[in-house]
């Protein structure tokens, strides 16, 4: 019994010794380098176990191994004994386990870790974090895209752990987070030393469509394109180059966002301070067209001073056309100052005011009654528009087309593009209207024909046509019609057929109508007037003499 008890105690002690002295597979153990041969280090891990590790596992990326016999190192025991009776150990796996423990603590405490970029992979780079391999996305390398990562390879530098998954062996780190934090501290320090209105020197780092970023010594400020010069700047590259040192003024500092607005033109004299004196109203100056829009054109009077020529002030004659058809960019033009608004920094200019009003010129050179010739530009329901000298139009109203035809009928004789002659009737400069007349060419024939004819006059006419209702007659080329009831005082003689074409007949003028251009004529009225005159001359109605006696006496007197 005593013998068995002693054996049990010995076995328990032996097992306890094995558990204490024999390393457990899959754990990190300490060992001692006893020799280096054939590119390998022979390491004693205790309990009479030795293993071999390639020297490259003891080297950091980009460095040579510094292991020497006698050095104590930690290795990972993968297997207690292999086929050759040696322990299977790994320095790299030991470093990895050690690194993972260290990285997990750093990740939990949001601390930085040190590592070195040693390789390039799809989408980024690989980083050695002292035994553990992490992935560095390309977007996390720097605050700005990096074209050449060569200078960063193998360089020990701090990183921030963004994500870890030990089970899958994934680690994602960022270099950008470190730079941004450092940059934020630097920005805060630099911004703290800046004040609004301060003049500083900076270096142009980047140029965009809307401005340029200027480095003020660790912090960037935005120099907007509108603050580069008093004149219009279409693109910042017109006056700035990357790497150029410029003097700028701090316009505004946003303490919360750390954004800085800069200006260059603020360091120059404002040309608008002298605009009122240099450009009085009504004065004419030469300028350069800088920009053309749908509503007008901008003209630069001097660097920093631009005025707008509204489309309505561009041409006397070209209405409703795009300004680009009148002027072109960079064209030198003469303009007149129409209005100045110093508060809004606006100058209203006129282009047409530098040229004479074509309606004034036409009125001077073509007084009323002047004969003109032009092309029919347009035909409307109320008349013709005829092109005239000075690129202006005159209108011939329907009522001024013909003496003999209705306007609606006369206008059918004209086509667009026809060359016609007309007479100037009226020029209204204020309303920019010119009235023309075609029917007045050669004068007013009716007025000339009846110039000495008045109501009650006796004239001689030629019979030109016989009709049932009366006769058509002509006087000095002007035709009239005498109705049947006006052919004679005697009802039995009111017969048109008693007249023949070509007969000459004395008639009395009963009406002169200038509008209808007609003479009212009557043979009956002439006879009544003659009878009345005879009665007054040779007797009275109560003298007892017969009408035949009176007329006979009158006739004898005539003889």
TrEMBL record:
Domain spans labelled S1 motif: 26-92, 110-176, 197-265, 282-352, 369-439, 456-524
Keywords associated with the record: Repeat, Ribonucleoprotein, Ribosomal protein, RNA-binding
PROSITE patterns (alphabetical): S1 (PS50126)
Tree of life domain: Bacteria
One function term, GO molecular function aspect: mRNA binding
Cellular component aspect of the GO annotation: cytosolic small ribosomal subunit
Keyword hit for Ribonucleoprotein: yes
Listed GO biological process terms: translation
Function: Binds mRNA; thus facilitating recognition of the initiation point. It is needed to translate mRNA with a short Shine-Dalgarno (SD) purine-rich sequence.
Family membership: Belongs to the bacterial ribosomal protein bS1 family.
Listed name of the protein: 30S ribosomal protein S1
Organism from which the protein derives: Seohaeicola zhoushanensis
Gene name as annotated: rpsA
């Amino acid at each position: 019994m005593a013998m068995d008890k002693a054996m049990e105690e010995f076995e328990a002690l032996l097992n306890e010794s094995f558990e204490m002295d024999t390393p457990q597979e899959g754990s990190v153990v300490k060992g001692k380098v006893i020799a280096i041969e054939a590119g390998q280090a022979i390491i004693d891990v205790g309990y009479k176990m030795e293993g071999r590790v390639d020297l490259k596992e003891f080297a950091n990326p980009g460095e040579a191994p510094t292991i020497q016999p006698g050095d104590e190192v930690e290795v990972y025991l993968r297997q207690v004994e292999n086929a050759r009776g040696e322990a299977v150990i790994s320095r790299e796996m030991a470093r990895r386990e050690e690194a993972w423990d260290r990285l997990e603590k750093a990740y939990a405490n949001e601390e930085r870790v040190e590592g070195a970029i040693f390789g390039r992979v799809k989408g980024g780079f690989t980083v050695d974090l002292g035994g553990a391999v992490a992935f560095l996305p390309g977007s996390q390398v720097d605050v700005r895209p990096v074209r050449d990562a060569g200078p960063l390879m193998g360089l020990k530098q701090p990183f921030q752990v963004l994500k870890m998954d030990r089970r899958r062996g994934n680690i994602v780190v960022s270099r950008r987070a470190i730079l941004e934090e450092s940059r934020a501290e630097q920005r805060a320090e630099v911004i703290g030393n800046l004040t609004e209105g301060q003049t500083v020197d900076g270096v142009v780092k980047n140029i965009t469509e809307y401005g340029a970023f200027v480095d003020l010594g660790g912090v960037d400020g935005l120099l907007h394109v509108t603050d580069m010069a008093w004149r219009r700047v279409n693109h910042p590259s017109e006056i700035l180059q990357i790497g150029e040192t410029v003097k700028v003024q701090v316009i505004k500092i946003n303490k919360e966002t750390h954004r800085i607005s800069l200006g260059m033109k603020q360091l120059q004299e404002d040309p608008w301070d002298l605009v009122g004196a240099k450009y009085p109203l009504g004065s004419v100056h030469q300028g350069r067209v800088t920009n053309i829009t749908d509503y007008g054109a901008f003209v630069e009077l001097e660097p920093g001073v631009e005025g707008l020529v509204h489309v309505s002030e561009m041409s006397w004659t070209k209405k409703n056309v795009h300004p680009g058809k009148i002027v072109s960019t960079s064209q030198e033009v003469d303009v007149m100052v129409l209005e100045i608004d110093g508060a809004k920094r606006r100058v209203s200019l006129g282009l047409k005011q530098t040229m004479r009003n074509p309606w004034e010129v036409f009125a001077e050179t073509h007084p009323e009654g002047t004969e003109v010739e032009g092309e029919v530009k347009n035909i409307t329901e109320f008349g013709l528009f005829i092109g005239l000298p000075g690129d202006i139009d005159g209108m011939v109203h329907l009522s001024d087309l013909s003496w003999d035809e209705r306007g609606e009928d006369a206008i059918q004789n004209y086509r667009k593009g026809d060359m016609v002659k007309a007479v100037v009737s009226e020029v209204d400069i204020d309303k920019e209207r010119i009235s023309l007349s075609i029917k007045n060419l050669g004068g007013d024939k009716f007025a000339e024909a009846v110039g000495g004819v008045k109501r009650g006059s006796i004239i001689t006419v030629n019979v030109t046509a016989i009709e049932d209702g009366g006769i058509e007659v002509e006087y000095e080329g002007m035709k009239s019609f005498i109705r049947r009831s006006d052919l004679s005082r005697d009802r039995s003689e009111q017969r048109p057929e008693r007249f023949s074409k070509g007969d000459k007949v004395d008639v009395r003028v009963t009406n002169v109508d200038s509008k209808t251009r007609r003479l009212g004529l009557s043979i009956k009225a002439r006879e009544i007037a003659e009878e009345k005159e005879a009665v007054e001359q040779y007797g009275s109605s109560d003298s007892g003499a017969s009408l035949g006696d009176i007329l006979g006496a009158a006739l004898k007197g005539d003889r």
